[in-house]
Amino acid sequence: MPIFVQVIHPDAATDVKPHTTGKIADMFRTSNQRSMAVWSAVFVLSQANIVRLLGPVGPRVLEVQTAFSARRYREVLAKMDGAETARFRSHYYPDFVHPAIYAVALRAAGRRLGERTPLSPTVRKALAAAPVLSAAGDYVENITGLYLLDHRDNITDRTVRITTAVSISKWVLALGSLGYLSQGFVRVWVAQWPGGRRNRVEEY
Q1: Four-point Cα dihedral 29, 30, 34, 37, nearest 10
Q2: Lowest-confidence region among 18-27, 64-73, 153-162
């Protein structure tokens, strides 16, 4: 009668833990990996702090950024009472640091993706430039927003439309970079996802 004995392949000795664990550990071997992980974590903390400061007036930020007219811009600001205006104002100060944080995080992620998969010089340059341009737009938006909050007589259609265009461009650049990086990493991980070494069954 045949006897089936389960024999573990010698190469599998180091695979006691699941491959997923190995892949996670593998993510932090290079400086770009560490930089991406650290700055991504800092970004999450920074974003959470801004959300905390804004509280219930958070929706006003998007409304201001997409106002398109002086009348609409003033209407959004007029919705807020004194306490809410103070909350709204408070988010601008950490938001002067936040753009630099997400720019560094996105650039680190771009460099890391370039380590994992071939990227054309054009794509590399775009992934390096887009976060910087997005952050620059964020600074323009923040400076203008903080100024107009205290100088509402200077709110004009031209100023609002320019600021709104900058805000939308900022979002397109930032989210476009994030979207490209996300699909890039997903493709890399799917392509390299191991089938897993299976214990070999041999008949004796």
Answers
A1: -80
A2: 18-27
